[in-house]
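I'd like us to work through together how a protein chain folds, taking it slowly. To get us started, please write out a protein record for me. Go ahead whenever you are ready, and we will take it from there:
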Amino acid sequence: MPIYEYYCEACDKKFETLVRGGEVPVCPQCGQSRDLKKLLSTCGFVSKGAGGETVSASAGSSCGSCTSTGCAGCGI
């Protein structure tokens, strides 16, 4: 059961939600719209070298200091 990120055309908000089977999500912000666009979510990673030092991380990510529990929380 994957988590997808959506944009609601009706209330202009982004959100992420767990999608089960073939169900169509409803916007949790306005509670009624199904006029949604599925977004391409970005992923982050950290690569560790042999000694445990960080070799590389996601380029251009602003999520390093994010305290949100989900990517839609910061509104990026």
The radius of gyration is 16 Å.
